[in-house]
Every structure is written in C-alpha cells, then in structure tokens.
Amino acid sequence: MVLGRITATTLEFYRRGRLRAPLLTATAFAVLALLPLLTPGVPDGHPIATAVLLGALSVSLFWYSVRRAERLIVDLAQGVVRTRRGDLPLSGARELVLTNTTEVDEAPRRRYRIELLFASGAHLRLLEGSDPARVLSDLRKVLGVLELPVRTGWGLPPGATPWRDGEAPAAAATAPAFVAEARPYESQGRTAATVFGGTVVIAVAMGIMMTARLRRGEAISALSASLAAVTLLILLVVGVVVLGLRTRVRWGDGTLDIERTVFGHAFGRERVVVEKLRGVHAVSPGTEMLEHVLLDAGDDLYAVACAGGGGSELAAALQTLAPQSATRTVPGTQSRS
Predict the structure, then answer these.
(1) Could you tell me if 187 and 256 are in contact, meaning their C-beta atoms sit under 8 angstroms apart?
(2) CA torsion sign, 143 to 146 to 150 to 156?
(3) Which of 58, 86, 90, 201 pairs as cysteine with 29 (C-beta 3.0–4.6 A)?
C-alpha cells in the first residue's frame, strides 16, 4: 500500500495490481508450449497435446502471479475509513504502528508496514513497501492530516522519530574517507543459482524436444531456434545481474554517495547531505538481522539495502558519519551471507 491522493479531508491509499515471482516460470512454460507449433509442417496429435498442456500451465501460473489492486480511503469529513470490506468509524482509531513481518507474504522480500490500530482491536494496513525510507516519507505526509500517535518498530531505538521532520545537530561529520560495499538482498547467491539451474533445465528440455524432431527427420525453423536462444539468454542475463548486484557507499570530500552496482559498474546514485543527518539506524521488517541502514537527514530519508554479505561492515562505516549528538544505532548488526 502506498499513499495516493491527499487533501485536507481525505487520504487515499492504494496497492497496484502487480506480478509476482511465478511469472518467470509461466513465461518459460509459454515458450515451451510454442516450440512444438513453430516447426515446419502440420504438427500431429502429440505435439498439439503437449502444447495445450504447457499452455494451460502457463496461463494458470500467470493468473496466480497477478496480485489484485486494492484501495482504502480515510474520509476525515465523514469520519470513516472506507475499505472493500466495509466502513470503520475513524473515531475508533487509536494509533499508527510500525509493524514487523516475519513471513514473506506474496512478495519476494519482506516488507515494512504501517498499520492503523483501532480500539476494537481491528487493524488496517495503510502503508507497505520494501524501502523503509519511502514508507516513512509517506507516513510524514499522513501525519500532516491525520494526527495520531505513532508506535515505533522495525528495530528503531527509543527516542528515534524519523517519521517527523526536524533540524539536524549542529555538528559536521569528520569521519575519514571510505568505500563500503554489500549485497543488498538476502540469499542473492541462492537466487542466482536457482535462475541458472532453471536455465539448465529449460535448455535440456528444449534440447530433448529438438533432438526428437531431428531424429524424426523434421527440420527446426530459424524462428523456433531463435526463440529458444533468446529465452535462454534472457534467463542468463537475469542470473548474472542478480549475482553481481551490490550496494556501494562512498564518503569523501564532504559528500556521501549511495550507488547500485553490477560487478562494479554503477547504474544508480543518490547523494546525501551529511550535514543534515539526525540519525543512523539499523532497521529490519520483522527479524533481528540487518536489512537496511536508515539515514535520517531531516527533510530527507535514505535507505541503504545491505541484507546480504558485507552488511555489518557497511552499517558500521555509515555509523561514523552521524554527529555524536545525533541518534546512532547500529547495535549488534548482523548480515546474511
């Protein structure tokens, strides 16, 4: 859920329909279903039956991978919260809670949530995302309209309030220059291995089908061979990108850059105004393991993904940038290898 339209009397939250992980498998089955139909000549009953079966599997997985859209409206003028399951009285709302998730529910990564808690015990998910900085930025806008207390979470320390704007301590960072790098996501290596393994399985399946046709004296069209080659190439590129993706931070000459790299080549960069830093916090959506380092720079928030190998070292390096009077919390950080 993200914040959409906002007025003096209305807050509108929505979750777009999106595709989930099985889409890749559905695409592979679709390619395999097309191969028997792309060969020269009229296919007999066996290839047609195979294509129909693989096509049905592809459609089923594609349908399962599509997550439906959802919408929620907080109407302050009418004093109600409108959901697809009915309306709730806004007078019963008690607080906003930074909730933790211990499961990967319909998402490839754990997600940070903010829920609206009612006196009756009911709770509604208002905001959700894999980037804590974006979720908290939306929360800041919500609090400008809906004045409710916020219960902390995500491993934030007592006294840390990154959901509120504020001035930074009047002290500049004096840490020596450094470059630190970490894997942004948990289990990147295993994910890449799965992609490569799936590529091998698909390649073997394609090879068996093509070999069987050659043995029967049937020609393989250039379109069929090209489609198979392009599919395998795309899968290999996905695996390589997942394997080589890193988060890199550079501090020097008074500037802090956060970069996304693939095997050392940067393709995305954010620059942080270090003089505005109010706090450096290790956060996680429901586990004791380090997922992100949240940089609270007053009007701006930044989240540095570092759940994989090297995360502890990157977090410790960033901690040195917060002034002594700012909130500095990266205690007992751990990262997954």
Answers:
(1) no
(2) negative
(3) 58
d(CA 265, CA 248): 10
Given a contact cutoff of 8 angstroms between Cβ atoms, the answer to whether 90 and 147 are in contact is no
At position 65, the amino acid (one-letter code) is: S
Q: Rounded to 5 degrees, what angle do the CA atoms 89, 9, 132 make?
A: 85
pLDDT at 48: 74
DSSP letter assigned to residue 103: S
**CA–CA dist 240, 234 (Å, integer):** 10
Largest CA distance in the chain: 80
Contact predicate 46/39, CB 8 Å: no
> Residue 181 forms beta bridges with which residues?
248
**297-307 confidence digits (pLDDT tens):** 888 999 999 98
Smallest CA-to-CA distance from 273 within 255, 250, 287, 289 is with 255
| Residue 93 and residue 116 in contact, taking contact as beta carbons nearer than 8 Å | yes
Residue 321: closest CA among 269, 281, 288: 281
Distance CA 304, CA 297 (A): 13
Identify the CA nearest to 330 among candidates 311, 260, 270, 179.
311
CB 280 within 8 A of CB 318: yes
pLDDT of residue 327: 47
Residue 158: the pLDDT is 83
pLDDT at 117: 93
Q: Which residues pair with 53 in a beta bridge?
A: none
Beta bridge partners of 245: 262
Q: Is 294 helix (H, G, I), strand (E, B) or coil?
A: strand
Residue 61 binned pLDDT confidence (cut-offs 50, 70, 90): confident
Query: How far from the centroid of its chain's Cα atoms is residue 131's Cα?
Result: 7
| Chain mean position to CA 161 | 23
pLDDT for 196: 92
Say whether pLDDT at 4 is over 70. Answer: yes
Q: What is d(CA 156, CA 150) in angstroms, rounded to the nearest whole number? A: 12
